[in-house]
Design a protein that fits this description.
alpha/beta, serine acetyltransferase, domain 1, Aminopeptidase, six-stranded mixed β-sheet, two-stranded antiparallel ribbon
Length: 573
Amino acid sequence: MKPLISTILICILVLSITGAYALASSDAIASNDTIDSEDIIESNDNIELYNTIEPAQEQVYTSIERYVSRLYIEALGRDYSISELEERTDGLNNRSQTAASVAYEFFFGREFLNQRVSNEEFIYRLYRALLSREPDAGEQNQWLFNLNTGWQREAVFAGFINSKEFKEFCKAENLPNGAATSSPGQINMYNVFVRHLYATILNRDPTSSELTAGRNALRNGTQTGVSFTHSLLFGTEFVGRNRTDEQYIDILFESMFGREPDAAGRATWIKNMQAGSSRYSVFVSFAGATEFNRMCSRHDITRGAVSQVRGPLDGKIIVLDPGHGTSGSPGAGSYNEAVAMLDLAFRIKPLLEAEGASVLMTRETAANVPLASRSAMINIRSLQAVRATVTSSTHRTAIDRLIGIMQGIINNPSGQGPIYMNVEPFNAARAIHPDLKLLFEYQDHSAVRNNFLAISLHTNAATSTATRGVEVYYINPAENTNTARYYTGYLYSAQSRSFGNTLINQINSIGIPRRATGLRAENYAMIRESNVPIVLAESGFHTNATDRELLSSPAFRQTLAVAYRNAVLAHYS
């Protein structure tokens, strides 16, 4: 009995001591008295474990971190990671950026632009992010009025950055303010322009090196608004994305005018492109517009002249050979091949010239031009391109002599043509003339290989009226015995075949089918008597009613001209 009573008394004593200690602890905490940790450890080993756990503390932000976190939340409408916060605060901490320049990266970076917020939302976010408050009705309406009467968002942003309220905020938070001007250490409008174009054209932010290079080029005048915009729109990165014409028009409005396209304007430009206007020619129109001039002026950018930029075919020489003259021209019904192909050539020529190409036509009237003369024209133009790059007087003299021979053929095709060329009819036993062979060797030159192309324009005929489709021929001694007997050193067979395939695909896409044997090597005079990239293209069979109806239509020939233009562009891309 006594042991039981003793045990009960011990338990009561322990509980009393524990309760007293707990009460003393709470009283001490309430009165902010200090509790000696050693006393606690001696009193209860379990409390020692509890005491080693650090109490949770609320994150303490610096003024810079508070500012950047607010930009994430209010400008972009999302939370942020620790790494994002550190990345964005670095520039402010080391004073390489200002509050203004960091804010600009948020409001005009790719992420924000991709949200496509309304003007109302844009203004609201500016107030929340930069001034940490909501606008009153009068403020909101005033900024909306400014935007609706021609102000760009950059100008509205500048108004906030330069406001007394934002400057006072920066001063109170010890933030470097900055301003929306091009002065050193402040928002650089060259940077603004570069970032805007990368975001709207390439849908990304520029890298640090791209931003620096673009800014410096615009500042020192080696690039202008026109040339810099052109470099992005026609650069490898953008071209490789294969944007549709509709997307291209939208991008031009956003990048060059700083706004979304209006419905009527968009429809007009798309219609123009469907009718044959090229992307380059549309760019030229945008570059010459008052809106683009204003865009450049707002960013302290020299707009520059369109003549400063190179078209995609700048430096290229294209020879168009409209085939037969009117007299004795093949045809069917009211269709005349010579008339139709001359019309087609006149439609292709300005399309290529609009892209920067130099275009020569071997025939510009209904008169017949002999095969030998047309081949001589091709040879002369290619030799002139080679001579322009040659410095040796010996080679120049040799080239001049060969040009003289070709000119003699043009002047007297029936007398001089048969001497130097194997034409009308082809003699399979005859070897190439030594002077023509020397001419072919001079055509082994980068000026020809990289910048020269000849296209002979024809339509085809067949005994069967059911036969239809496009065919393209090129020269290749490896595929044709007669060609090999004549000359084995043709250099541009693969290049010509590649262009021929591209052309067939373009023509097939507009309604004239590709024939199974439509791309092949032949020994025709028009492609044999020159050593240049050259094809003879049959754009359909005029003996077939369906093809003939298409080829007889001026509207279709315009579409066909665009297909030829597109094939040339694709060939040189």
